[in-house]
Amino acid sequence: MAIVGVLALQGSFNEHIAALRRLGVKGVEIRKPEQLRNVTSLIIPGGESTTMAKLAESYNLFPALREFVKMGRPVWGTCAGLILLSNNAVGQKSGGQGLIGGLNCTVHRNLFGSQLQSFEAELLVPEIASSEGGPETFCGVFIRAPAILEVGKEVQVLADYPAPSNGLLEENVEEERRVIVAVRQGNILATAFHPELTADTRWHSYFLKMADDTGEEALSSPVAIPVDISCVQQPRNDLPIYR
Fold first, then answer.
1. Distance CA 150, CA 142 (A)
2. Has UniProt tagged this entry with the keyword Magnesium (predicted)?
3. Is 229 annotated as a binding residue?
4. Strands 147-151 and 3-7
């Protein structure tokens, strides 16, 4: 059975492990560099990117994580994980933070605002629908979310969304500006939202299949349990808050 590592320093790592379990795949918590030797793919969950970076420094994880990415192993970052995988991040706290890098993009660390501005939205995801079936849309859960402002030519855009009108970006009154919220670059997958907080496992299934595309050991095809994957609006205080 395939074993997927999930970075378990802080954030929604348990939710990712539960989603993998629904697909019949084992997820294991990763906190030490040597544990990366036992997995062929890795998920970096949502949470608080500055805290995660400080903990990664404390555990001396950054060199091993960067090497894991450079080796071409499949890596998926959600929300904070997207920030950590990016080559460039803006809107950081004073003093900045460590980045793993590897994803040729510039990300705004907190473009969609504070926890109070958390929201859900239907996103057009034609690549995911084509690969994994199901509807053309996906319910994106955005919690104090980042967004990608620029990508390199080798980066495939998988989803975008209208930029918020919060003054953090220059606005063009003649044309609605959209920002990127999901990408793939070779062995790297990144989403600004939290698929692990929904019942829809198509992003996890898509990630598992990336092992074949990147030349890694083939993973058995996951079978998802049928669920209602419609995007039902919830009160914002029902959304998990990572401090």
1. 19
2. no
3. no
4. unpaired
* C-alpha separations of 195 from 28, 45, 52, 205 in Å: 18, 10, 19, 11
Q: Which of 220, 224, 181, 180 is nearest to 202 (CA)?
A: 224
Residue 228 belongs to some domain of the structure: yes
DSSP string, 119-152: EEEEEE-HHHHHHH-S-SEEEEEESS--EEEEE-
End-to-end Cα distance, the chain: 34
Q: Which residues are catalytic?
A: 79, 194, 196
Which of 69, 83, 79, 42 has its CA nearest to residue 185?
A: 69
Q: Look up residue 107 and give its amino acid.
A: V
Which DSSP symbol is given to 188? E
109 has binding-site annotation = yes
Residue 16 falls within a domain, yes or no?
yes
Phi, psi torsion values for 7, nearest 5 degrees: -60, 125
Residue 112 inside a domain? The answer is yes
pLDDT tens column, 195-205: 999 999 999 99
In a domain, 243, yes or no: no
CATH number at residue 25: 3.40.50.880
Query: How many domains would you assign to the chain?
Result: 1
Question: Does 47 appear as a known binding residue?
Answer: yes
Q: Whole domain around residue 15: which residue ranges?
A: 3-238
Q: Which two tokens stand for residue 85?
A: 């995988």
Q: Cα(53)–Cα(69) distance, rounded to whole angstroms?
A: 16
* Residue 28 or 96, more confident: 28
pTM of the model: 0.85
